[in-house]
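Feature request, filed as a ticket because there's no other form

It would be nice if the structure record came with a short human-readable summary line next to the tokens. Right now we just get the raw output. Example of a typical job, pasted below so the devs can see what we mean:
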Amino acid sequence: MAATDVRPLLELTHRFADELPELCTPWQGAEVPAPQVVAVDDALAQELGLDPQALSTPEAARVLVGMDAPEGSLPVAQGYAGHQFGGYSPRLGDGRALLLGELHDLDGRELDLHLKGSGRTPFSRGGDGKAVIGPMLREFVISAAMHALGVPTTRSLAVTITGEAVRREEGPQPGAVLARVAVSHLRVGTFQYAASMQDPDLLRRLTDHAIARHHPAAADADVPALALFEAVLDVQAALVARWMTVGFIHGVMNTDNTTISGETIDYGPCAFLDAFDPATVYSSIDHGGRYAFGNQPSIVQWNLARFAEALLPLIDDDQDRAVELATGLLAAFPARFGQQWRAEMRAKLGLAAEDDADGDLFDDLLRTMHEQGADHTNTFRSLSSVVRGDATPLLDQLRDRAALDPWLERYRARLAAEGRQAEVVAEGMDRTNPIYVPRNHLVDEALTAATAGDMGPIGELLDVVTRPFEERPGLDRYALPAPDAFGESFQTFCGT
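Raw output as currently delivered:
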């Protein structure tokens, strides 16, 4: 591998590779003819102490496709297993990706720098190891939007085109590589992979590594592995509660896409709701609706059960006792998720205090939204107008404008009982309920243009979705749901 010293652009360590060599393979990216950086998240670059302009140079482009490595780095392809749509695959891993190493942001946080689409690896399983510009820009846009919405997420630093055409079913597409930043790339599937090796020392070292990076308080617990499981359960409950309240559908919630950190990872067939419907599925590969919007809480609980299975040898030497302890925590997931979800919903409705009737209030609103075909994002945004005394924007979301009358009476009474100043409440709601999310038809439109060489629509979309709570003139089209004809046929794809 060519070693190009791009310091101070990038200074990387290789902690994962050093501490867990059994879980990775040193590797390098494929040679590509003409790498060129076409998108950089300037704000993220600055948080990392990097010069955004320097990231757009030809030298940086070679690094950001994996051809060159900063001096002292040790790029690796990570190994992991996973349940994919319920079926276990014992060897998945980075089939088209590389962990370049770890870097530190200006606050001293340790973060992974990871490439996606950098070529074949020992984990490729017959794939070409490549990525194309559309899916890579999709992750760039949607991860930026999720960060702006306050949802824990991996983030996209840059997209680099490779100058080659990559074969896909729809025809040759421009090749591209995504540079992704994450708190780490440890997954439930990482633990499944380590457990399958039946090496107690490796599983313990992986657990210690995960605790040190993500949940250090677990190190002081009587049973650190059990405390790690509980910590991951809590962060995943909070994450999926955020997904459910912003209307995000992940689309491929396999165990290899369930992170130990509680970050959203892998923006393949993801999408956002237009009309609220728990059964919504957009992914072209989710034929049975396993990962439908409304199934996401139960699926993450199922994935956490697989995590617990991997940890059992470290929880207790007596397997029956280990199962009992893990199952006790797992059974608490619905209550913990529910607590997080209700807190999110109270914020969306401008309610400060808990109330025993909250569950009914929230469920009745969602049921009516479903029955009325109401737009998810616009309905919640319009609730601040109700607080200000004008229900018209809310009623405009409904087929039957009287359908919410009984609910509105209860909601207004609940607000009045709290006795808070209406404008203060409404302003708080406007900081919680976005006007703009990455609408599926607009993302599709922008990606089609980018694939044809026009990056203008991507730049415009990014500008909108990274300021999601700020109403601005001239952006009305970005707040409108997709035309009916689009929504009836729209599908998302993994991009492989």
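Something like this underneath would help us a lot:
Residues 1-8 have pLDDT under 50 and may be disordered.
DSSP finds 18 helices and 13 strands in the chain.
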